[in-house]
Amino acid sequence: MAAEVLSLIDRVTYPVDDRSGATYRAMVDAAHHQLTTTGAAELSGFITPDGVAALVADAESLAERAYHSVGSGTAFLGPPDTTVDDDHPRARRMPYGVRAVAYDVIPRTSPLRQLYESPEVLALVSDIVRQGTLHPYADPFGALNLAVMGHGDELQWHYDQTDFVVSLAIQAATEGGHFEVVPKLRERSDHHATGERAVLDGDHREVVTLEMRPGTLLIFGGRTSLHRVSPLSGERLRHVGLLAYDTEPDRVGTEALRQTRYGRTSPFAEPPAQWPIAAS
Ligand SMILES: O=C(O)CCC(=O)C(=O)O
Ligand SMILES: [Fe+2]
Q1: Does residue 278 belong to any structural domain of this protein?
Q2: Residue 94 located in a structural domain
Q3: pLDDT tier at 3 (50, 70, 90 boundaries)?
Q4: Does 237 have pLDDT greater than 70?
């Protein structure tokens, strides 16, 4: 099984099965440097074209397991700050619409799940991030998500609550759905949130679009770089795998977050074979 999933990876450029080799060392050094200087390490072509085809087929079959949440959120996540004006970036609410397939409903045979669970991918992320021993995130919903976005969906400008996020681009939308970033904006932020306000008001001069071509593995420092997924349109779904790791072995998310993002709070013990679940 493990050997099979590694065949999805371009191991000439990313020899994850030869960690002591010179190619691997140079590759992770370059990615670590890119992450610390720009806030993002882009491993383009990480997945081979055949591997992308397998991930697309898998994602299309998993899409019906997604929970669609629509609402409004702030840039700093968490509840709006009530001590500032409604218009302040700490208080302003912006619309989002996203669909998430939770880890507990992703079958063990899914190539996305097998990539997430492979020791080689965990080692690769650890070797690039360099924040001590990393563990797969212990949350039964949030450890691995397939984020599915379709016509009318978007994800508002925000900072993440974790230091880094690993995403795997699987399929691009027909139109829009771009991953837009203001690198390291938070490091320049003042208490008026001047920089954030400009971006929220539509000043995109400092916005860069990360390409997220299918097959790209992106390691992103989302706590310091303001980012969003721009509004989508068209028939084709945007598919991105979100692979979560933590420096602590047993941290989990809150019940409130489970309810908003996945529409339920108790995980399945084993991924359901059929969907929708037959009423019992
Ligand atoms: O879908 C993506 O590319 C990134 C999503 C994101 O920013 C998040 O889940 O925090
Ligand atoms: Fe994010």
Answers
A1: no
A2: yes
A3: low
A4: yes
